[in-house]
Amino acid sequence: MAEYKEGDIIKAQVSGITKYGIFVHVDSSYNGLIHISEVSNSYVENLNDFVKMGEVIYCQVLEVNDVNLQLKLSIKNINYKATIKSGEIEESRLGFLPLKNKLDDWIAEKVQEYGLK
């Protein structure tokens, strides 16, 4: 059985689309739900505009329930439809998120280095 943890980026196959979220099949044990609030930072009118039944997408793990074998997932801060063509460099599924997370640290280092504060 696969072990999942918060923050992991995983592949899943869309198995259901409702008004409130997208159900996905992750592996032989786990299933997941991407709540409508975890699809986009903008208003979502129709989830069918984002995914199609049977489509394989990337998801970010928000919460793991090992008892019920269920995952709470998100696609709003990752490139969930990432495809990699043969011979190309593989890009991070997190996009610019790692840079955003480090930006404040880098600024603080440079401020200290130049004695600006």
Number of helices, where a helix is a run of at least 4 consecutive DSSP H or I residues: 1
- Large-scale geometry: elongated
Give the topology string: H per helix, E per strand.
EEEEEH
State the strand order across the main sheet. Answer: 1-2-3-5-4
Which CATH top level class fits?
Answer: Mainly Beta
Task: Estimate percent helicity.
Answer: 10-25%
For the largest beta-sheet, the strand count, sense and barrel status come to: 5 strands, mixed, barrel
Mean pLDDT across the residues is 87
Determine the structural class based on helices, strands and strand pairing.
alpha+beta
Query: Mind telling me the C-alpha Rg?
Result: 17 Å
Please provide a written account of the structure.
With 117 residues, the chain is of the alpha+beta class. It has a single domain, classed as Beta Barrel (OB fold (Dihydrolipoamide Acetyltransferase, E2P)). The chain is built from 1 helix and 5 strands. It has a 5-stranded mixed β-barrel. A hairpin with a 3-residue loop joins β1 and β2. The termini are far apart. The model has no long low-confidence stretch (mean pLDDT 87).
Name the features.
five-stranded mixed β-barrel, 1 helix, 5 strands, 117 residues, alpha+beta, OB fold (Dihydrolipoamide Acetyltransferase, E2P)
Entry summary:
The protein is of the alpha+beta class and 117 residues long.
Furnish the topology, listing elements before pairings.
Layout: E1 9-17, E2 21-25, E3 31-35, E4 56-65, E5 70-74, H1 97-113
Parallel strand pairs: 3-5
Antiparallel strand pairs: 1-2, 1-4, 2-3, 4-5
